[in-house]
Amino acid sequence: MPKIDIASAPVRTSTIYPPPYDKVTVGREKIALGNLAGLTQFGVNLTRLKPGAWSSLRHWHENEDEFVFVIDGELTLIEDGGETVLKAGECAGFPAGARNGHHLVNTSARDATYLEFGTRAPSEYSVYSDIDLAVTRDGKDFRFTRKSTGEPYP
Question: How far apart are CA 120 and CA 125, in angstroms?
Fold first, then answer.
């Protein structure tokens, strides 16, 4: 496998979240390193969060493990149990099925960079802890619903 040229890799700033929730990730930049390497069993993203940006809405995964490793800067991990500062060289993991809503927020005054690893289950159900939203993924198709009723999200 040839070396991945990170400097010329496409950077994704978009999100799958429906409005108005799509605003929380403004300032997030992702490079899908796992896709560039042709990986199919797990994903790897190199992610940069600008000051004030969120990694995602606070969530947990039913079928997928997730792991983050901070490379540079400082991030605040917000979970059901509270907040923890993660600095360069520190990491956190979230096993599939653990109903511990989590996300990272850059509360510092400078950019922070981290690696994000996750399994690629054929189907997934994720719940967003702080709002009435869930997402079901079957393959590459996403469907947002209200977690309270199961109705499609407008």
Answer: 12
Q: How far apart are CA 2 and CA 124, in angstroms?
A: 31
The SS3 of residue 60 is: strand
Its pTM stands at: 0.94
Give the mean pLDDT of 34-50: 97
In the chain the domains, ranked by start, together with CATH numbers, are 7-145 (2.60.120.10)
Strand partners, 70: 114
Q: One-letter amino acid identity for 7?
A: A
Distance from C-alpha of 71 to C-alpha of 75, rounded to nearest angstrom: 10
pLDDT at 1: 61
Query: What per-residue confidence (pLDDT) applies to 2?
Result: 82
CA dihedral defined by 117, 69, 81, 30, rounded to 10 degrees? Answer: -60
Residues in the chain: 154
